[in-house]
Amino acid sequence: MSASRAFDLVDKVRTTMNYPHSIPLWRANGELLPSNAFSQVILSSAGTKWNDVVLEQHDFLSIELADVMYKQHVFVINVGHPITCEFKKKGRFRRVLKERDAISFFPSSAPFFLRLKLERDVFGAFIRLGLDPIFVSRIAEGLGLDSDRIELVEQRRETDLALRHIALAWRAGVRTGDAGDRMYAEGLSTALAVRLLREYGAARPELKRRYGGLPGKKLVRAVEYIQDQLDTDLTISGIAQAVCMSPYHFMRLFKESTGQSPYQYVIEARVRKAKELLATGKLTISEAAHHVGFVDQSHLTRHFKRVFGMPPKTFLSCGESCLLPKKRTKLQENYNIL
Hints:
The chain is an alpha+beta fold.
């Protein structure tokens, strides 16, 4: 079966959108490589509000890439059939079988050779995550690391459960529209960059750890900042800056204090504020969604149903009497919020 017929067959079996290749390959001499004819992007995060990390999911047949490189730091995760992978290491050819969930990492501007082989007429599938090196350097500096002394190296692993979790969460966010929320994207991007710095260098840096959650004054300041800015395009870095912390340390300590990530907390705060606005009868669901910072009405509806067990349309028809009482968290009790 020809490559074109194989792609036609896949298109008949499932309906997919075609996306541009947003993580380009370059030849070692600096020339941009045309998109691979045997690789089709079927899902992409390109076009969202956050571009420091880009996700693509590809379908492909066999691929050979010689003396090419990325200008981003790139993870490739096999999410399809097993692949025979041939590559060069220290000048010698190696061959491995890459099972589902196998990971490859390619540092920015590091040329490589790669040949991927599949059984005849079998389609492969992989997720590719491209990280902006400037963003990674910024995260490194926030962790107290000297980004100029960090040496990232090409690697292949049977799997990396933490990285797989981040990639699948990112893919789910692209599919549902959550990736359009800057906080969702920023949280996953930061977690991915920290994972890269911890695990994919020539040496593993020691990161300073902080325990015990946020100090009380910083927690109150963060909560006040969030409540005041619900209708804006909130970011983790913006909240962290308001309490004089790096985004990574803020994310981790905020979760220790509240039991929720900053993104989860902001989403629930927005849902509860939207409920208050809808209860006045003065706003439509779409208007309420806009007033509290949701991407659109469907974004509010999905999370409203998750928090309250019903869509906002049902709430409008029957009011507070339809809602089951929800136990307030320790944070809500202590600071009389939400």
